[in-house]
Amino acid sequence: MSRETISQSISIVHPISLSHGRNAEVWDTTGKRYIDFVGGIGVLNLGHCHPGVVAAIREQATKLTHYAFNAAPHTPYIELMDRLTRFIPVDYAVSGMLTNSGAEAAENALKIVRGATGRTAVIAFDGAFHGRTLATLNLNGKVAPYKQKVGVLPGPVYHLPYPSADNGVSCAEALKAMDRLFSVEIDVNDVACFIIEPVQGEAGFLALDVEFAQALRRLCDEKNILLIADEIQSGFGRTGQRFAFSRLGIEPDLILLGKSIAGGVPLGAVVGRKALMDNLPKGGLGGTYSGNPIACAAALATLDAMTDEHLQAWGSQHEEAIVGRYEAWRSQHLSPYLGRLTGVGAMRGIELTSPDGTPASQQLTQLLSLARDAGLLLMPSGKSRHIIRLLAPLTIEPAVLEEGLDILQACLQQLV
């Protein structure tokens, strides 16, 4: 099958063609089976073809496949927003809107922030990833490949170091950089919002420093700056909780949702304080496909499965298996390239470093190929593309998870 009609600017991690999948397993067009530790890059927390999601899609497809909500409201959108706002673990009144993707949620959040504050400046963080649309590109804390050759980007946007035990940047260092920013680059009173991932995904599963998160929340309250939490990858149970911001002891003003919100059907959302969500004029928010009935039905089925009991059990299972294996590998000196374990809960990364401490990017490329040949799909991440991003479905069978970790172990031993 020719791929000549597909843009060559799309980067492919695994040069295979998938045919079908079931929970944490996929098969390519040759019939080869793989254990999937990619999960559609964090989209499939409930696995491939979750029975509840599939049933909801089928049923909705016999009733109403599409209607633009801003033309005439439909029941799935209304039901989902009611359920979703009750699913968000905050104490304030929540409202929101549905979008087609996480990037579109981020774009709308920027509009909402501008309307609410009358300011335009945004502060993001090194290593961040918020999307590939024009405005979200400038939020990303990485130039290559996202910002190359596209010219001047919407702004103003400023970046700060992202403090995490996983990257060695301390709370004190980040706060010092913030002080410099406000004394040299921009008046704090001109800042509309901070946008931050509670756990960075693209950067290699770096968990935000709790002390910094709380200091940032205090600053935002003092200076009337809004705080946006990007939970597109870390949300819907990936860390063992509904959302990763809960471990930080803070409440963001706006929350970006996407990826695992609808079991693989394209959907996103921006939700937050009702006064913020209602501040733009009628017609200021919306979209033709945003909140498509089939996507809403899939999301409702997803929420049915994501009880707190399930999320806690799934998170504990993943954490115990991954951390236990990693600690064993370290004690056994499995590979000279085995670096740190990053992240929290079921959102984990394994860093590959050379004996001299530099990123082992070449070895990660080798690992991707070795694992794929052995029947395991992995996803790279990190500034230097040297961190394995583990995103197996939360619903993976324990035996399949162990089988995947066995393959990973064998491949780590083969690195040269």
What would your notes on this structure say?
With 416 residues, this protein is an alpha/beta fold. It is 36% helix and 18% strand. The strands form four sheets. The protein has a seven-stranded mixed β-sheet with strand order 4-12-11-10-7-5-6, with helices on both faces. Strands 1-2-3-15 form a four-stranded mixed β-sheet. Strands 13-14-17-16 form a four-stranded antiparallel β-sheet, covered by helices on one side. Strand 2 and strand 3 form a beta hairpin.
SSE layout and pairing:
Elements: E1 18-22, E2 25-28, E3 33-36, H1 39-42, H2 51-61, H3 75-87, E4 94-99, H4 102-117, E5 121-125, H5 134-139, E6 157-160, H6 171-185, E7 191-196, E8 199-200, E9 206-207, H7 210-223, E10 226-230, E11 254-257, E12 268-273, H8 274-277, H9 293-305, H10 308-331, E13 338-344, E14 347-352, H11 361-374, E15 376-377, E16 379-381, E17 387-390, H12 398-413
Q: What is the string of SSEs from the N terminus onward?
A: EEEHHHEHEHEHEEEHEEEHHHEEHEEEH
Query: What general outline do the C-alpha atoms trace?
Result: globular
* Structural class based on helices, strands and sheet pairing: alpha/beta
**Helix tally?**
12
Largest sheet: 7 strands, mixed
Helix content: 25-40%
* Unreliable spans: none
